[in-house]
Amino acid sequence: MNDSEMRRRELLRQTRRLYDDKREIPAVHPRYGRIYHNLYENNTEEQEPSGGTFYIRLVIGILCFVCFVYMDQSKAEIAQVNSDAIVDQIEKEVDTDAIMETWKAL
Question: What is the per-residue pLDDT across 51-83, written as a single tens digit (0 to 9) for each?
């Protein structure tokens, strides 16, 4: 290995170290330093991706649909509401002017 190749490798190593975001914490104003360190410094290895609430919402939607189908098939009423009343409320046209007036009154 000659001197120019060693010099290039050393420069490459320094550049990687300089621009590696994972190793060093960027410059943060002292006022916000503690908050930044609490959020990012301790949790870099322990960070797990959050799953969100998609599956919970999916299960709730499936349960609502199953309840609706049961109410429709057995002609059951829950709290004086049957499947026809639910369909009527879903198909009901929304009056945006009335909603805006109500919202402004709040």
Answer: 678 889 999 999 999 999 998 899 888 888 888
Tokens of 54: 């998609």
For 78, residues 6+ apart whose C-beta sits below 8 A from its C-beta are 71
Q: Is 80 helix (H, G, I), strand (E, B) or coil?
A: coil
pLDDT band for position 26 (cuts 50, 70, 90): low
Could you please report the per-residue DSSP string of 6-56? HHHHHHHHHHHHHH-TTTSPPP--HHHHHHHIIIIITTTTT------SHHH
